[in-house]
């Protein structure tokens, strides 16, 4: 993938002896300039400061975040430039080291439960269970109410049904 991006840029480069950009920053800058987009426009579109975009294009890694935030920044910039995002990310990893998120590690001897490509479900498996809990709580409240009536803890003026009064006066 990296080769295809570099080969494409070499083909697009004029024959005047200027070399094609080799790093992430110069590659993105040349794409931006080819599309005649200003740094301010990129800044407004990506919601990053002009300083951060200039630092990326100059490959001043000390002025940029590291790890996954840098990867997301470069991914968004490459996507906006309509570049091959995976190729640009490979270039980034070759320049600054691995920036991808680390995989979930399991305890020794136990296989990880989530694979890298596994999709996280959007709804919980037990979505029907809250109704069960609601019914259990409702049954407990009814039992507690009848117990309170039987013990005489409820004023007789609250008992609107005759059969409830019979339960309360059953002593």
TrEMBL record:
Q: Does the keyword Membrane apply?
A: yes
Q: Which UniProt keywords apply?
A: Membrane, Transmembrane, Transmembrane helix
- Gene3D superfamilies per record: lambda repressor-like DNA-binding domains
Residue ranges spanning the membrane: these are: 131-149
What Pfam family is a match for this entry? Answer: HTH_25
UniProt key word Transmembrane: yes
Disordered: region residues: 1-29
What domain of life does the UniProt record list for this protein's source? Bacteria
What InterPro entries is this protein classified in? Answer: Bact_Cytoskel_RodZ, Lambda_DNA-bd_dom_sf
Give the matching PANTHER family. Answer: CYTOSKELETON PROTEIN RODZ, PTHR34475
Question: What protein name applies here?
Answer: Helix-turn-helix transcriptional regulator
Q: Which organism is it from?
A: Yanghanlia caeni
């Amino acid at each position: 993938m990296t080769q295809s991006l570099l080969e494409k840029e070499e083909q697009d480069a004029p024959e005047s002896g200027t070399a094609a950009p080799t790093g992430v920053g110069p590659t993105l800058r040349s794409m931006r300039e080819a599309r005649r987009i200003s740094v301010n426009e990129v800044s407004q579109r990506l919601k990053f400061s002009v300083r951060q975009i200039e630092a990326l294009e100059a490959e001043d890694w000390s002025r940029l975040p590291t790890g996954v935030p840098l990867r997301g920044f470069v991914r968004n910039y490459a996507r906006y430039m309509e570049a091959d995002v995976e190729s640009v990310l490979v270039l980034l990893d070759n320049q600054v080291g691995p920036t991808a998120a680390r995989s979930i590690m399991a305890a020794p001897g136990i296989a990880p439960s989530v694979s890298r490509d596994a999709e996280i479900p959007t709804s919980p498996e037990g979505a029907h269970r809250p109704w069960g809990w609601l019914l259990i709580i409702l049954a407990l409240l009814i039992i507690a109410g009848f117990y309170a009536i039987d013990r005489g803890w409820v004023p007789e003026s609250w008992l609107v049904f005759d059969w409830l009064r019979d339960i309360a006066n059953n002593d």
